[in-house]
Amino acid sequence: MIGTVGIRDLEVECVLGVYDEERLTSRSVRIDIEVDYDMESIVRSDQIRDGIDYDRIVEISREHAAWAKYRTLEALVGGIVDLLARAYPFVERIKVAAAKPGAIPGATESWVTVEITGET
Predict the structure, then answer these.
(1) Can you tell me the mean pLDDT for 51-58?
(2) Is the pLDDT of residue 57 over 80?
(3) Number of domains forming the structure of the chain
(4) What is the CATH number of the domain that holds 60?
(5) How would DSSP label each residue in 42-94?
């Protein structure tokens, strides 16, 4: 029984940017996370130990964003995907998207999505 859990519009603070002036202060970035996995155990037990802990996903994402000082959204998102894959090696798919509001004049936001599939 494969299902998807997710978190939408998680705000994280991070130092992120290609240009020196972008790297002077932290900024808010919005993150969406989707994780597919076999939910049979948690459906039957109704115990979080048998599934994905949303709080842990948020903790991993926020801590990584606060600690890492990337130049690109791609690197930030890739780092989060890698950490989630290590924390939950049994998942079928992890997809993380991040949006950087106000990064490009005349555009609402710039964004990137990274996805991995299979046993990691």
Answers:
(1) 96
(2) yes
(3) 1
(4) 3.30.1130.10
(5) HHHH--GGGS--HHHHHHHHHHHHHH-EESSHHHHHHHHHHHHHHH-TT-SEE
**Whole domain around residue 11: which residue ranges?**
2-117
Q: Please state, in angstroms and as integers, the Cα–Cα distance from residue 9 to each residue in 31, 33, 38, 41, 58, following that order.
A: 5, 9, 24, 28, 11
Q: Which residue do the tokens 């037990």 mark? A: 45
Q: With 70 as the cut, is the pLDDT of residue 120 above it?
A: no
* Angle at CA of residue 98, ends 94 and 101, nearest 5°: 170
Amino acid type, 99? A
Hey, is 2 helix, strand or coil?
strand
3-state secondary structure of 40: helix
Helix (H), strand (E) at residue 4: strand 2-16
Instruction: State the pTM of this model.
Output: 0.91
